[in-house]
Amino acid sequence: MKLNLEFDPLLLEQAVPLALNRMVQNRPLQQERARANPVRDPKRSDRSIRGAQSRWLAKLSLLDCARRAILEGGKSLSGVSRWLITGASSERLCGAEMTAAEGTRRVVIVRVLPATLADGALALSFFRCELLTIADILDPAFEYQPRLTASSLGPLETRRIQDRISVLWRCSVQGRLVREGKLPAEQRNQSLAQFRILLPSLEDRTQECFERIFAGPRPLHSVFVALATEPEVAFGLQRRSMLRRRRCPLCGFHTADFEPGVRDLPYLVCRAIYLDFPGWKAEMGLCRLCANLYRSLSSRPTHGVPCSASSA
Ligand SMILES: [Zn+2]
User: Fold this and answer.
1) Ligand 1 centroid vs 292 CA: distance in angstroms?
2) Ligand 1 centroid to residue 258 C-alpha, Å
3) Are 277 and 251 within 8 A, CB to CB?
4) What is the pLDDT of residues 79-106, one digit of tens each?
5) Per-residue pLDDT band at 307 (split at 50, 70, 90)
6) Residue 213 counted as domain residue
7) Distance from residue 285's CA to the centre of ligand 1 (Å)
8) Which stretches within 105-186 are classed as H helix?
9) How far is the CA of 243 from the centre of ligand 1 (A)?
């Protein structure tokens, strides 16, 4: 099968020395470069270095991981006619993205860190995850919707929902790959840690909810969106959430997210609260947002100090 697979030369230029470093402290390429450099003609020298690099590319099999992952995807990726593999400057920018189709041709751009490409096992895991995500998008049964319905909660909450969709989807992808033996079993702990960070409101039910995604069948895309928008409701923890909800005595909002360590709040934080809410007592509690607000207010040197003193 002929693959229309292109690599950004700059990415390869960065990845080759890293791969060599991993292998033999970069010596073989340096020796070849040293042999190429004495040539006085800079154009010829450049050609020689590039020639050495491409020979090492083949020796290091840097391009094989992407090729292998695409071939493993088989029919599920047959809708893609062109693959472009390019570099990413940070972890956050890594990933695969399907650009608008060129007619009936679909083009996928995969952004990867040079260090990931330089590490064969890591690169294979990375491409397998990214390509299974693309296979999901291409599968009509997944009912992928590229755009979120506009959230009435503003850009910050929309961003939060998108981050949660990513982590839920990734957990599902990683779980399926672990079951197929294409990712190491230890991946589970890393996936759970990410899930925990992005979905803190699930608290003691985190593990159970995680298992439903990681070990369960792939949900529809709309289910990921629902889980990301209102995790407690969509995971069926609504009753617990309703029972735990009450009004924060400071901001007045109904919430289940109360500050757990009210009695351990530092004196200065409590003092800052008393200044604004003289009737407040620790046993009334307060929501986590208010607690964080007063933590930051109390750390400011001018809080509670008369203006004349602070401007002196
Ligand atoms: Zn509050």
Assistant:
1) 10
2) 8
3) no
4) 898 999 999 999 989 999 988 665 667 8
5) very low
6) yes
7) 9
8) 114-118, 120-138, 154-179
9) 17
**Residue 196 belongs to what domain range?**
154-238
- Ligand 1 centroid vs 283 CA: distance in angstroms? 14
How sure is the predictor about 16, in pLDDT bands with cuts at 50, 70 and 90?
A: confident
Per-residue pLDDT tens digits for 268-278: 999 999 999 99
* pLDDT number for residue 210: 96
> Which residue's entry shows tokens 């069926």?
236
- Centre of ligand 1 to C-alpha 287, Å, is 4
Residue bearing tokens 């709040």: 265
Whether residues 11 and 90 share a domain: the answer is yes
Q: Is residue 49 part of a domain?
A: yes
Least confident of 115-119, 188-192, 212-216: 115-119
pLDDT for the residue numbered 260: 80
Domain termination site, one of 106, 137, 168: 137
In a domain, 149, yes or no: no
Q: What is the number of structural domains in the chain?
A: 3
Residues 159 and 102 in one domain: no
Cα of 293 vs centre of ligand 1, distance in Å, is 9
How many Å apart are CA 287 and CA 252, to the nearest integer? 9
Does residue 309 sit within a domain? no
Mean pLDDT of the chain: 83
| Same domain? 94 vs 63 | yes
Spatial neighbors of 18 by CB under 8 A, at least 6 apart, are 114, 115, 117, 118
Of 246, 251, 256, residue with least CA distance to 292:
251
Q: How many CB atoms lie within 10 A of CB 280?
A: 15
| pLDDT at residue 1, rounded to an integer | 60
What is the per-residue pLDDT across 138-166, written as a single tens digit (0 to 9) for each? 999 999 988 877 555 667 678 888 999 99
Q: How far is the CA of 254 from the centre of ligand 1 (A)?
A: 8
Distance (angstroms) between ligand 1 centre and the Cα of 257 equals 9
